Amino acid sequence: MHELDLAFVRKQFPAFDEPALRDQAFFENAGGSYPCRYAIWRLHRFYRERKVQPYGPYAASELAGAEMDEARRRLSRLMGVEEAEITFGPSTSANVYVLAQAVRQWLNPGQAIVVTNQDHEANSGPWRRLAAEGVEVREWRMNPTTGHLDPADLAALLDDRVRMVCFPHCSNVVGEINAVPEICAMIRRAGALSCVDGVSYAPHGLPDVGRLGADVYLFSTYKVYGPHQGVMVIRNGLADRLPAQGHHFNAGVASKRFNPAGPDHAQVAACAGIADYIDALYAHHVRAGRDARDRNGVVHEMMRRHETRLLQPLLDYLAGRNDLRLIGPRDAARRAPTVAVAHHRRGAALAADLARHGINAGGGDFYAGRALEALGLDPDHGVLRVSFVHYTSKEEVDRLIAALDAVL
To answer: Aminotransferase class V domain: which residues (predicted)?
Structure first.
């Protein structure tokens, strides 16, 4: 058990040394985290030294391709998957859209998919549109009071017509961490495939996708301290069955099959900075050799312990107020530190008031309008959302609570 050295962590993020940001407490990490210095440095170096077409026969081109390959190789090892199973795309929204087109071509008439009303629109809308193509779309609905997704409700939807189930690792407004390994195992026993949106979970510890059991796992690197890219893991057994969506001559290239846009060379290369950061945290706290997957697991646990310790007092404070509705679990161990509250004032107005106290938070529907409606809330009115990751300090959470007292 290693306790997170917060002083060391914050030194890895240049934002904390910026004068304009120094007095600001950042609580909108669910919209995008601060980038670590390793990703910034790699992006800067690529644009300065290697901004050429990669994989050519000259030195700068060879180095550019090697850096892109390094990012794929190191992220795959951290997550316990094969290099060929990783697709980089412009965003998770774009990756899901492309995947849905491939699945549409693969499905037969009369077959079904399952979506939830807990999801961000990225892992909901593209699948729901398949209904216009004759695909049956079934909805796994969350509890309208708690926001919980009950696996027993999913079991009632599964039959031999269901080919895929799409659900979040955790919702970006409910925050509850869903039991992904158990749910994926249930889906597999039913003869279907699983597509897990990990965008709201991955910032709190890069997941071991190999052990989760998901057939598809997606997340956004700009929320995991890196550049603006989407990562889609498609396990080999499924990738080979789906029709390619890129240029026909790239159909046999695993990294290009599901990215019709083509890779953003510099940003793909900069994703290796995420691996640099995880390795730096491990080396600073542990200093003993393990393989990449184990190192990532240790860092994941350190992040989660720190976040959980900071989150529980905030949840207790919010749950103790009778003028707002706290969405999702009140136990920090069951959720990510992405916390939405409903109030008689609009979420955007509350966020604007917090900004005057040096608290950077968000207000709105966060592309989770279906989830808010399912909870009986008006997406146009919106909610206030405060979110943080492991580089947040106790002092910043205390500042947030004091500012909430003043604003509410």
So the answer is: 26-400
205 φ/ψ sector (left φ>0, alpha ψ -120 to 50, else beta): left
* Beta bridge mates, 340: 385
Q: Cα(291)–Cα(294) distance, rounded to whole angstroms?
A: 6
CB atoms within 10 A of CB 322: 6
Q: Is 30 exposed, middle or buried (0-12, 13-18, 19+ CB in 10 A)?
A: buried
**DSSP state at residue 132:** G
d(CA 389, CA 63): 33
Q: pLDDT category, 21, cuts 50, 70, 90?
A: very high
Q: Which residues contact 212 (CB under 8 A, 6 or more apart)?
A: 180, 181, 184, 196
Which structure tokens are listed for 169? Answer: 């690792």
The string over 199-215, giving b where at least 16 C-beta atoms fall within 10 Å of a residue's C-beta and e elsewhere, is bbbbbbbbbbbbebbbb
Confidence of residue 18 (pLDDT cuts 50, 70, 90): very high
Strands 112-116 and 162-168: parallel
What is the C-alpha separation between 157 and 92, in angstroms, rounded?
26
Residue ranges of alpha helices (H) inside 320-393 are 347-355, 369-374
Tens digit of pLDDT for each residue in 321-336?
Answer: 999 999 999 999 999 9
Residue keyed to tokens 């046999």: 252
- Residue 164 pairs with which residues in a beta bridge? 113, 193
Helices 59-79 and 272-285 cross at an angle (nearest 10°) of 60
In which region does residue 175 sit, left (phi positive, over 0), alpha (psi from -120 to 50) or beta (all else)?
left
Token duo for residue 147: 């926001």
Which pLDDT belongs to residue 237? Answer: 84
Instruction: State how far the Cα of 91 lies from the Cα of 364, in Å rounded to an integer.
Output: 21
Nearest to 324 by CA among 313, 340, 336: 340
* Residues in CB range of 348: below 8 A, 6 or more apart: 363, 364, 382
Q: 216: part of which helix (H) or strand (E)? A: strand 216-220
Query: Is pTM, for the whole model, over 0.90?
Result: yes
Beta pairing partners, 139: 115
Distance between CA atoms of residues 189 and 210, nearest Å: 17
